[in-house]
Amino acid sequence: MKYLSKPSFLGSAAVLALSAGAAFAQDMPFEVGEGDFQWDGYETFAEQHDLSGQTVEITGPWTGNEKEKVDVVFRYFEEATGANVNYSGSDSFEQDIVISARAGTAPNLAVFPQPGLAADMASQGLLTPLPDDTAEWVAENFSAGDSWVDLSTYEGEDGEEHVYGLFYRVDLKSLVWYSPIAFDEMGYEIPESMEELKELTEQIVDDGGTPWCIGLGSGAATGWPATDWVEDLMLRMHAPEVYDQWVTNEIPFNDPQVVESIDEFGWFIRNDEYVRGGAQAAATTDFRDSPSGLFAVPPTCYLHRQASFIPAFFPDSAELGDNVDFFYFPSYEEKDLGNPVLGAGTLFSITNPSEATNVMLEYLKLPIAHELWMAQDGFLTAHAGVNPEVYATDAQRAMGEILADATTFRFDASDLMPAEIGAGAFWTGMIDYVGGDDAESVAETIQDRWDSIR
Amino acid sequence: MDNIAGHKSSLSLVTNIAVLCLVVIWLIPTVGLLVSSFRDREQISETGWWAAMFPVESAERMRPEPEGVTQDGDYYVLEGNVFEAGSGSVSGFGLTGRDPGAAEVGQTYAWFEVEVTEEDGEIDDERIEIAYPADGEPEFPEATEDGLPITPGSAVLQRSLTVAENGDFSYVNDGEISRAPSLYVITKQPPDFGWQNYRQILTSDGMDRAFINTLTVTVPATVIPILIAAFAAYALAWMDFPGRGWLVAAVVGLLVVPLQLALVPMLTLHNQIGIGQSFLGIWLAHTGFGLPLAVYLLRNYMIGLPRDIIESAKVDGATDFQVFTKIVLPLSFPALASFAIFQFLWTWNDLLVAKVFLPSNSESWVMTVKIADDLLGSRGGDWGILAAAAFVSIAVPLVVFFAMQKYLVRGLLAGSVK
Amino acid sequence: MSPILQGILTIIIGVGGCVGYFYLSNIILDRFVFPARKDDQGRNIARATAVRPWLFLMPAILALGLYLVYPVVGSFLRSLYNRSGDEFIGLGNYVQMFSEHGFRVALFNNFLWVLFVPAAATFFGLLVAQLTDRLRWGSIAKSLIFMPMAISFVGASLIWKFVYAVDPNIGIINAVRDYFGLAAIDPLQIPFWNNFFVMIIMVWMQTGFAMVILSAALRGIPEETIEAAILDGANPFQIFFRIKIPQIAGTIAVVWTTITFLTLKVFDIVYTMTGGNFDTEILPSYMMSYMFRDDGRATAVAFVIMLIVTPVMIYNIRQARKEL
């Protein structure tokens, strides 16, 4: 059980679905063979597998509205194979799965909200490796496939590395939200590079406006939005390998490259003219409250960097694509690092193998398994083979495109670091930094903390 | 004090004013909360709660649907009313978000394209924005803001907006109006008070569940320690046995043991014996933590009961058990009541014990946890909701407080003054 | 089972169990263990009388022992082990802790709290008690100042957010600054002084407690003493400071120490106001940031709080012993 935990937003992307409405009254809302779905693979799959009488037990973090959606995906599996799928979601999934795995009462499959716990359980021998060809398949079929393979490859109890998970559903963090109406009225263009974004920031100030809305407040988890900023900038300033070393502490937290990224974040946030209310206000403004400046009349800010879940906290007047939209948090033109994307995702792992689990994993490799949730909204995938036409909204489609164009995908570093750092020292350190401490000493404090927990 | 101040009316006046000031200072924060909990969310962000009785002025973007557009020469005209509900009052309007109050009602606000002469003598087109009386003609300046001379008579209307106080508007554009245009108006809205925040918090935000959880924690955690403590207090007050003095001293000592010490060992123990994080666990924990004060308060009270009543009862052959239930317990009612209030307020208001001994899922959140860990985050900027939630959580203690203040004071005095 | 049903059942079982225990144990003691029969009536009654107090005390002693005495030992032992609890590291947690900036800040702030909160609350309490003493509407005034006592720390923090908020349309402080044309500030981010802004909430809540008790104590001062002083020509201030204060010094000490203890335990206010950021951490909230993660460290912090309390606890026990 964690005392501090970054709020989980797996649920909130669903609010994007406001427009999708209550269409799913029936058990199987999409007619097989109709629409933009890729049914071919599904039909072949159905012919190949017969699991009548078997049951697949699955636990995961999706509850409520999301459970309903994933249940639809599973129902098509049941229909195809004759198996029974029993999915149960829990808010305290992360504790429950450890307890049940130790007690030998684990379900067949578990859906992990982040790789850290899966890696941990793999090292204790509580997970079964996926079939050997999975790594190859993911590398070929996912955009930024190698990143996904790395994220799901862990050391097992035997000390050997295997792929232990298949990513299904992704959250996107590298987004900047803005108001097309305000941009239109002021004649601003969407920046294509980080250099342009910084120019735009300065131009907005010249025009008498305030460019950024930044809110780092989040109750006991205050500070985490700043960690996303630093991670995003880290990926844009340095090679992904450096990022990985940072996550595992192979390079110390106070490495000059990390400090440089923190200072780059400082370029945005430590300038009182760039941030609504000044840097000080950013530290206490709640992150859920901060995007409201985009909608104010006159606008109190023009830009807001936040993950794909944030529309859940927009005011009622917000309408995606109309008075609010997003663009990719761009990379530096001068640095040749491609288009990195920061995000998070959930992965399926085998906790108790059976014939049916492997078939289920095969099913999850099919584009249709992804499309079935895409069509219900609130779902992004790294699977490159899906048909983007299926996305329920234009906004989702645009996010999907950003994911598909990604050259590198990296998981939220603070989720991968030990909780003391990623859900503690890193957060408070960022608040200290925003408050005026220098990046060097903040990074040093965090590294000290890291040293102390070894 | 009339011996002192009574003779000096000036001092008495000063006293009155000073007390009044203190009371006002003490009340202001709570009043702010109460007022805010009834206000509309939009209005809260526009004016402070102290201005809640006055109309609120706010700038808004209006997007009237382009229906019923008429053509007037080269221009297209859209007419309508900015208020969907049909009523309201406009005090200013404009065509850009940056300056939503560029013109006053009764004026026309227009964009003209004019010819200007650049410094190097070249002729260029530039846009100027002018507000003029709706029934009058625009007066063009001789130069732009940058000081470039404008060619007289060169102005061509691009777009104009006229808004009346009642919200009737007329929007003129030089091109076809296919999309809903963005118009900006500054409106005055009457104060909006109501139960909407409470309704929301109790129906859709799960505060009802938290309220029930709090109640579920509080009642057993108040009743059980009283019983246990009453017997112990009687033994410590009216029974003779070796070590009594030391036990009383121990209770006094335990009064101040920080309950932080108990968190880790007791949670570990609860987990080992299978109670885990549960309501049963929190009842036991509150019972343990509340006992020292209960025993101490009740013993202090019971020892003050008249000795002859108890002794004569004993002489008559009553057992200790009978003396306790028939005589001491009824006589101790005030002390029992005051401890009950203490324990009730303490368990109702507790955050720490609930965070540690109850599961951390939304089904078992009590109100304090709900507010501190959920609402302050997820509703961080929604002050009306926060205020309503806070008020729901403090309403019951306040009622108890004002209804039973007498006992509370008595208990405090028994507990602290010897 | 729904928690409500469970709660009702617990009350029935708990209350019934308690009553049943006390009743039955008495009967068993009197009828079966030491029955007052003819042959050794006197001896058995004496024996039963010797045992009965312990029957009455048993549940309380058990609960107190389990929830308050055992944890003192248990916490101390746990604090000698590492985070996972499987390795004995002696005073390692303490050594590590004292070398840490965060802990030293928390400790320092805690001393600020212990110095400021009881002093300010007692001062205001005494002030109000004295001022309202003979005021016609004094009891209403007292009741209103006493009221925050009924509010939870969380609720109080929320109430004060409406004072400290940066937005001049929410926070009163910034509204006033705004009125005078000053820029908005965040009181909770002003280094060092932010501690006091947080402490004020505690003072606001505890003043009522101090006032109630001190007001009773002031009334307990014999009229003659004061009248004698007036005859001697003392002015009101002299009477207050030279006569009244010394008379109630004992009560002031009790109020002071009671608030001090409470101050040492409260983590809610810091937790909800700043989350321990901006160098406002105090020991109880610092402890909570380790709770469930590093039990060794958490218990070590708890034990430090215990050590701070101990001297006053010993003093209290001495006083209690003296009175018996």
TrEMBL record, chain A:
Name the predominant localization: periplasm
Annotated signal sequence range: 1-25
**Which cellular compartments is it found in?**
Periplasm
Q: Does the keyword field hold Transport?
A: yes
Q: What is this protein called?
A: ABC alpha-glucoside transporter, perplasmic substrate-binding protein
Q: Which UniProt keywords apply?
A: Signal, Transport
A GO CC annotation recorded here is:
periplasmic space
Q: Which InterPro entries match?
A: Bact_solute-bd_prot1, SBP
Q: Which family does it belong to?
A: Belongs to the bacterial solute-binding protein 1 family.
UniProtKB/TrEMBL annotation, chain B:
InterPro entries noted in UniProt: MetI-like (IPR000515), MetI-like_sf (IPR035906)
UniProt xrefs under CDD domains: TM_PBP2 (cd06261)
Organism annotation: Salipiger bermudensis (strain DSM 26914 / JCM 13377 / KCTC 12554 / HTCC2601)
Supply the name of the protein: ABC alpha-glucoside transporter, inner membrane subunit AglG
User: Principal place where this protein is found?
Assistant: membrane
Q: Which PROSITE patterns match?
A: ABC_TM1
- What PANTHER family does the record tag this protein with? ABC TRANSPORTER PERMEASE PROTEIN MG189-RELATED-RELATED, OSMOPROTECTIVE COMPOUNDS UPTAKE PERMEASE PROTEIN GGTD
Query: What Pfam family is a match, any one?
Result: BPD_transp_1
Provide one Gene Ontology cellular component: plasma membrane
Q: Any idea where this protein resides?
A: Cell membrane
Tell me where the transmembrane regions lie.
Answer: 12-35, 217-239, 246-267, 279-298, 327-348, 383-404
* GO terms under biological process: transmembrane transport
Q: Which UniProt keywords apply?
A: Cell membrane, Membrane, Transmembrane, Transmembrane helix, Transport
According to its UniProt record, which protein family does this protein belong to? Belongs to the binding-protein-dependent transport system permease family.
Bilayer disposition of the protein: Multi-pass membrane protein
- ABC transmembrane type-1 domain sequence ranges: 211-404
From TrEMBL, chain C:
- Location relative to the cell: Cell membrane
Q: Which GO terms describe its biological process?
A: transmembrane transport
Major subcellular site:
membrane
In its keyword annotation, does this UniProt entry include Membrane?
yes
Q: Where are the transmembrane segments?
A: 6-29, 50-70, 111-132, 144-163, 196-218, 248-267, 298-317
GO CC, alphabetical: plasma membrane
Q: Sorted alphabetically, which InterPro entries does this protein's record hold? A: MetI-like (IPR000515), MetI-like_sf (IPR035906), UgpAE/MalFG_permease (IPR050809)
Q: Which SUPFAM superfamilies match?
A: MetI-like
Superkingdom of source: Bacteria
Give the record's keywords alphabetically.
Answer: Cell membrane, Membrane, Transmembrane, Transmembrane helix, Transport
Q: How does it sit in the membrane?
A: Multi-pass membrane protein
Where the record annotates domain ABC transmembrane type-1, the positions are 107-316
What is stated as this protein's family in its record?
Belongs to the binding-protein-dependent transport system permease family.
The name on file for this protein is ABC alpha-glucoside transporter, inner membrane subunit AglF
